[in-house]
Structure formats: C-alpha cells, structure tokens
Model the fold of this input.
Amino acid sequence: SLKYNIKFLDKILAIYRSHDGNISSDEEEMYLGHIKIIEKLINNKVENNFKKEFLKRIMAREYYLLGRIYFREKKNLKLSFSYVSRAIMLNPLIGQDFMVGSDLYL
Done:
C-alpha cells in the first residue's frame, strides 16, 4: 500500500460458512442483485454520494459479466446479447476492461 503500513496477523479473524444456498454460489442471482442495488442508487431511491457516471460504469460491468454467464454456461444467446448490449450502451469500452484471452475463442 502506498498510504498505509501493512502488517501480518497470524490469527483467524472471521469464519465464512459456505453452503449451496449462498447467493455467491449462484453468480446469476448475485449479479441481478447487484443490478437492483445500483439501479436504486442511480435513481436516488437510496441516499448516496456516488457520481452517476461511476455507478453506470459499475452497472455496465455487472451487465457484461451477466451476459458472459448466459453465453458460456446457460447457452442463451438472446439474453447474453441483451445484457452485453446494455453494458456497451452504458460503457462502450467495457470489453477492454473485462475481456480475457479465452473470450476470443468462445
């Protein structure tokens, strides 16, 4: 870190219980949940100090990642195209940020 000192602490500070019902075990549900929260922030339904452009970039990322899930895992081209299109409308350069080598050989 450039601002703070980093120290090593050899102790368990938290325990995370993982099970099939965790929202993080279902990426689709996780991204859809993120999108709902970001929509509330963008529409000022929740008080916040974030700039709209910042929130739109985050929303674009969630749409892009959701589109990748529908393309790769669910084989649903229509939904994949829909989510990736939304991502591109919010951030035309989204592919530069998140494209990985394996995306070239889908």
Remarks:
- The chain has four helices and no strands.
- The CA atoms of residues 69 and 75 lie 8 Å apart.
